[in-house]
Structures are given as structure tokens and as C-alpha cells.
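Study the following:
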Amino acid sequence: MALFSTTGIRGISNETLTSEFVLDLARTYGSMLKQGSKVLIGNDPRTSSEMVKSAVIAGLLETGLNGFDTGIVPIPVLNFAVKQSYDAGIMVTSSHNPAEYNGLKFILTNGMEISENQEKRFEQIYKRKNFRRANWKKIGKYTEHNVIQDYETAVLNFIKLKALNLKIVLDIGNGAQGTVVPNLFKQLSCETVILHRTMNGFFERGPEPRPDTLTKLRETVLSEQADMGIAFDTDGDRAIFVTGREEILMGDVTGSLLANEILSENKGGLIVTTVATSSLIDYVVEKNNGKIIKTKIGGKIVGDVIIKKKALFGFEENGGCMFPQISPSRDGALTAVKIAELVASSGKSLSQLVAKFPKFHQLKARIHCEEKLKSKVMTYIKTLVKKEVKKIDSTDGVKIFFEDDSWILIRPSGTEPIFRVFCESKSQKRTEELEKWGVEKVKEAIKKL
């Protein structure tokens, strides 16, 4: 079984992700890098993060690398700092997975996660256990170093307005953005109400900002008469918005809103997103005479294409937006600040800004599926889509387009034992029909196998 998921290496703390395992993973990455390299290490607030990070630091120092511990930070802060001043980075996080999980993301000097080819080299070194061991005179050094202020300065310099004067409810989700985003909005003259700020490794709301976990945020936006609410995931690379009218805007909508602004300012350009993104982005790109590339799902995949194709902007439907001027990786805080700036500069509400776009109805579902069945389920699903379809896209899973321009995407998750079903049409009823069909077919396949 491969070590890597869609993004990083993950497991259940002290079960499948033990200190011994992590030590070997750090030795592996250390052996891939030049002796004496500077590696920045950060972590999210999970209960196991200090344990995991200690093993990471030991493995790096053993291979002759210098470890710089920046403590609890959102991963976009670590990515930015690595790009500015370090040879590599490691983030201790399991992103949106449940609290019992943890994991590692390996960052290159350009601020991006290691590529699929580098993952293969990583696995080869790990399996051989042929790790470099530094001579006692060249064992690496350990230093603590705070990188948050430099990141905040870069974000504040990146936006045009220096005072937004908005009232915003921030749902930190007990995650790493508690160290950054409240202070950013304070510096931008915003009044904030903060939910779920405690960083103790227990997620009161749940680690992932989904519609079914955002009830308290919606209620607070209404009761506080706030301009908007913003929810973040555990490692802080995603942001989901709630309007002043309690509407939840998924990443497709806010990503398209930002893309519209960026394409308009640049009179066209290239946008990168994934096959799971709403058709709204196609409308936005065409309206602005832009170009679009759609990739497999995964932030590092989108980021790699942004770099190679010199795109202006990229995003995923899960709320992760990428601004290559700062870092070609997902950034929840910068996404939050840019959307807030757009609202403040327009003089309109977030609801009003979104209302100018055509409406697409979306639904997403999750079905539990054991890892060993995923490939067989996917094969079965592909046998069912031969009739009444306009087009089939197999970039990632199977995406089926119908004659009425509705579509459904069915794919196995790369990070959890589940199948994901994404569907979209121009009517709620049709979208519900698609979701029901997709969920039934996945369950049918699992039952047969």
C-alpha cells in the first residue's frame, strides 16, 4: 500500500501513525535533502502533534539537517515562510481528518508539497531504510523561530485597502488559524466575533467546515448582524463563507468571485481548478476572455499547474484558494482577507456580489467504503454510464455530463475511507435526483463486492 494519500501521509495517532513510524519518515526526508539544509517544522493543535513533531525533529537532526520549530501555525504560513527563507518544511497535520488522526506534509523550497515523482523516490528510500546518519560533529541543530509576523506583513501588503471596517464572525474550528486570522482582521480595523478558538486538539465543530457543521456560525452571523462569517479547517488552508443572510457559500462560488475580479483586473489570464468545481467558473472565465485548466483533485496538483503554466490564480471547491504571488498553495487566511476586501471596496454585501452570477445548485455526499474495495467500486460505476450521457471525463474518478448540462462526479477519497459524490444542475430537484442516483450506485457496488 502506498504511503501517500492525496496530500501527505496520514494515520491514527499511536496506532497506524506511531513515533517509530514518524521517525523513519523524517529520516527518509532528511536523507533526500542536502546535509546542513534548514527545515521549518510547524504543527496544528491536535493532541498528538507535539509527540509527532518530536519524532520529526529527531529524524531530521539525525540526518544532519537543522530543524527550526515554529510551533502552532496554519500550513499556508509555513509554506510562505519556507518559500522565503528555508530549504524545506514539514507540517504536522491531518487537515480535515477526525481528531484521532495526524500526519505529515512535506514541503519543498518553493513552498509546494513534494510531487508524485518525489513521493516515489521517498517511498524507495523508506522501504530500503538506507538513511543517512550524520557524523557526531555534523548532527543538526534545533532552533525555535516564529514566522507569523512576516506572513501577516506580506498579506497586509498584498491587499489594497488598509481598513475594511466590517463586522465578521470567525469560526476557527479549534484549528491553527487561531494564531493568525483574528490578528489580521484586527489590523484591518474589523470588529470580530470568534467561535471555537480554543486550540486543545478537540474539535467542537468538527475539523471540516461543511454545511452540516456551520449551524452555530450561521446563527451567530444573524444574531450579531455581521457582514459575513468565515469558517476554517484545522490546518487553515481553507475558508468557507456565510453571508449576512445566512447563505453558505462553498468554495466554488467564492473562488469564482475572486477569479472574476482577478481576470477583470488583468483583462484575461489563466485560472486553474479541479474537475469537481462548479460550472460557474466556466461562465466567469468565458465572460472575462480568460482560459481555464481543470485538474485532478488535490491542492498540490493545482499548485503545480499554477507554477508550470504561470497562472494568475487557482482554487478548489473545498474553499482552498491559491495566490501565486504569496504562495502557490491553498491559503485560508488570505482567501478570507481578499473576499472581505472585495466586499468592503464594492460597497455591496457578499450576497449582492454573488447574486450577479447565474445560480447552480450543488450537493455533495460521502459514502463509507473500505480502502480495499475502492478500485473495484470505481470499475463497477464506470460500467453504468454508457447511456443518456453527453460526455464522460475520467480525469479523476468519473464525471458524467448529461444533455441538460447537469453533471455528477463520483470518486474515491484519497485521504479517507469514503467515496465522494459531487453533483450540479440548474435546478434543486434535478440535483437531488443526481445525488440519490450516485449514492445508490456506490452503495449498490459496495454491496455486490
About this structure: The mean pLDDT is 95.
